[in-house]
């Protein structure tokens, strides 16, 4: 099955969506259609063996296994692809957090992802601490989160900070954030083929705006995929009637290039 179709199928229905590991590996299969997801699910199983507390989770991942934030090449697309993160033990905050969350889930720990602007964290439930997977599993209090927020966003003291910026992230929002990261990286690298599948996956999630449709239309054109691109854009009109005019215009522009 096409990786995009598989990802969309996983999101079918009104529930929270697939487990984070399954969804993140489905995204990664867009970059590698031959990806064996079961291999990496077993790796997460292995990492969880013997973990029975937050402290042992941190020790397993960041001391024994040496997972780390990729500070040398932050915008390497592999940092957003879970199979590469598990293989290389390098990633960005959101993918390293997924490793923590999924190992913790297997170990019976109560953790949730926290979507702080500019950085992604993990919160142990019933705790006032936050785990920063990008920085070696450091545990932060509210003041530590504020310092991280201000550094990540170059926010001065006039910008208010509080727990309202430390909001639990539902699964679909986490998948959308991964895809937004990949969108920016592939666009900057000029990797149009990869950008196409990322944008199509992105349309399956909440928060889509007109700019995604415009960019997808341009991407189809750059790939000379005029007919299929036009058909795809037209197929989206029933789902996104508020963008009907935009989608029709983009589809007509693609069809005009067939002449």
Task: Please explain how this structure is put together.
This protein has 259 residues and is mainly alpha-helical. It is 55% helix and 8% strand. It has helices at 3-10, 20-31, 37-48, 54-64, 82-88, 93-106, 142-153, 171-189, 192-202, 210-222, 226-235, 244-256; strands at residues 68-69, 90-91, 111-116, 119-124, 130-132, 138-140. The longest helix is centred in the C-terminal third of the chain and has 19 residues, at 171-189.
Task: Give a short summary of the structure.
With 259 residues, the protein is mainly α.
Quote the beta fraction.
5-15%
**Main beta-sheet strand count, sense and barrel state:** 2 strands, parallel
What distance separates the N and C termini? Answer: 32 Å
Strand order in the sheet with the most strands:
1-2
Parts with pLDDT < 50 across at least 5 consecutive residues: none
Number of strands: 6
If you compute it from the alpha carbons, what radius of gyration comes out, rounded to the nearest whole angstrom? 20 Å
- Helix content range of the residues, please? 40-55%
The shape is globular
Number of domains: 2
Class from helix and strand fractions: mainly alpha
Mean pLDDT: 94
Order of helices and strands: HHHHEHEHEEEEHHHHHH
């Amino acid at each position: 099955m096409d990786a995009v179709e598989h990802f969309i199928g996983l999101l079918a229905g009104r529930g929270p969506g697939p487990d984070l590991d399954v969804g993140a590996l489905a995204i990664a299969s867009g970059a590698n259609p031959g990806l064996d997801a079961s291999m990496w699910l077993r790796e997460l199983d292995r990492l969880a063996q013997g973990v029975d507390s937050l402290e042992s989770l941190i020790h397993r991942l960041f001391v024994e296994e040496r997972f780390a934030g990729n500070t040398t090449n932050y915008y390497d697309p592999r940092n957003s692809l879970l199979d590469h993160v598990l293989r290389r033990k390098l990633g960005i905050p959101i993918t390293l957090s997924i490793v923590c969350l999924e190992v913790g889930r297997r170990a019976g720990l109560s953790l949730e992802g926290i979507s702080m602007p500019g950085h992604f964290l993990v919160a142990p439930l019933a705790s006032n601490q936050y785990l920063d997977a990008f920085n070696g599993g450091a545990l932060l209090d509210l003041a530590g989160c504020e310092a991280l927020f201000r550094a990540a966003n170059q926010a001065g003291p006039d910008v208010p900070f509080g727990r309202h910026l430390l909001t639990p992230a539902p699964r679909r929002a986490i998948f959308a954030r991964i895809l937004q990261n990949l969108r920016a990286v592939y666009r900057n690298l000029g990797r149009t083929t990869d950008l196409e599948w990322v944008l199509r996956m992105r349309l399956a999630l909440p928060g889509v705006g007109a700019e995604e449709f415009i960019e997808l239309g341009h991407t189809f054109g750059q790939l000379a995929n005029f007919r299929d691109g036009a058909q795809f854009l037209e197929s989206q009109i029933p789902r996104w009637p508020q963008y009907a005019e935009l989608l029709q215009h983009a589809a007509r522009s693609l069809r005009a290039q067939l002449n």
